[in-house]
Amino acid sequence: MKIYLNKINEDWVVDQFVKEWNNFKFDITTYNVKDSDIIWLIAPWTWKNVNTKMLKKKTVFCTVHHIDFKKFNKKVEKDFYKRDKYVDYYHAISENTKHQLEKLTDKKIIVAPFWLNQNNFFHIEDAISLKKKYGFKNEDFLIGSYQRDTEGADLVSPKLSKGPDRFLEMVLFYNRSIKNMTVVLTGRRRDYLINKFEEFDINYKYFEMVDYKDLNELYNILDLYIVSSRVEGGPRAVFECAITKTPIISTDVGHSSKILHPQSIFEMKNFEAAKPSVDFAYNNVIQYTIPLGIDNFEDIFRKIYEN
Q1: Which residues make Cβ contacts (< 8 Å) with residue 208, sequence separation at least 6?
Q2: pLDDT below 50 — which residues of the chain?
C-alpha cells in the first residue's frame, strides 16, 4: 500500500501534518502519484494540482477541515461538485464537519482528528519564569488568542467564522472584574482585535510570528485561552491547550466537545459560567498524540486499501 500525499506550501498547520506524515510514515508514502494506491488530498482545493487521469484511476481520500456555508456561493458550490466526482472517501476532522458534508454528498465520510506532536507541545511547570521571559509579571492574568481574526487583505474586516467580535465581548467583560488582565496575541492578521483593544484601552501584547518552541511557552504562561469561533475544523488550539495543560473554554466547534469537559463548552449567552478543566482535557487528548494519532490514519488507509 502506497499513499500519495499532495503538498500545501501555504505556511499553514497542515504543512506540518504533511511533514510529520512523510517522516513517520515514509515506508507507505510515495512522492510519485503514479505509484500510489491512494491519493490523499489533505486540503480539498489542492485537487487541481493532481492529474485528473490519476484521480479517476486511483482511490481518492479528501480531507475537509470545515465548511462555512455563509461563504458557500455558486462558485464554491461548483468547485465542490466538480471535485466530488473524483472523491471516493471524505475525511472530516470532526463530527461537526461530517454533518456539514452530509448536506452536500453521499460519499462515505470518515471522522478522524489530526494527530498532535507532543514533541512540539507539552506542559512546562515553571510558569513564573516563563512570564518573566516574555515581559509579564507573575500577578498578571493572561488571556490568550493565537489565531487570525481579520478576514482579508484590508486588515479591517473581522473574520467572523473565528469569532473575534465574540472574543472582544468576553474580554471586555473579564476586564471589568479581573485585575492585571492582559491579552496575549500571536499570528498574522490580528489587526481587528488590536484596533479594538486600542479603542477600548485593553492591555495586550502581540507576538506576531513565533516558532513552535515560543508558541509552546506562550501557551504555558496563560491563565485562560478562549476559542470563540462560530465555525472551526479542529480547532488546533483545543488540542494544544489540552496537551500543555492550559486552561481553556470554547464554543462547541470542531472537536472541542470531544476533548473538553462539558462545563468548558459555552454559548455567548452563558460564557461567564464556563470553567476550564485541565486534567479532563489532558486525559482526552492523549489518544491523539504520536504514534497513536498518526497510526490511526494508517489503519484507516489499510482498511480502505483492503476493501
Answers
A1: 186, 187, 188, 190
A2: none
In terms of Cα–Cα distance, which of 216, 243, 240 is closest to 130?
216
State the pLDDT at residue 119: 95
Angle subtended by helix axes 292-306 and 13-24, to nearest 10 = 70
Render pLDDT for 170-186 as a digit per residue (tens, 0 to 9): 999 999 999 899 999 99
- pLDDT tens figures, 76-85: 888 899 999 9
Write down all domains in the chain, each with its CATH number in brackets: 3-115+290-306 (3.40.50.2000), 127-287 (3.40.50.2000)
- For residues 38 and 59, the answer to whether their CB atoms sit within 8 Å is yes
Where do we find the cell 500545501?
8
Position 233 scores a pLDDT of 84
What nine digits make up the cell of 171?
Answer: 474580554
- Label the pairing between strands 248-250 and 224-227: parallel
Closest CA to 142 of 178, 187, 193: 178
Q: What is the pTM of this model?
A: 0.93
SS3 letters for the chain? CCEEECCCCCCCHHHHHHHHHHHHCHHHECCCHHHCCEEEECCHHHHHHCCHHHHHHCEEEEEECCCCHHHCCHHHHHHHHHHHCCCCEEEECCHHHHHHHCCCCCCEEEECCCCECCCCCCCCCCHHHHHHHCCCCCCCEEEEECCCCECCCCCCCECHHHCHHHHHHHHHHHHCCCCCEEEEEECCCCHHHHHHHHHHCCCEEEECCCCHHHHHHHHHCCCEEEECCCCCCCCHHHHHHHHHCCCEEECCCCCHHHHCCHHHECCHHHHHHCCCCHHHHHHHHHHHECCHHHHHHHHHHHHHHHC
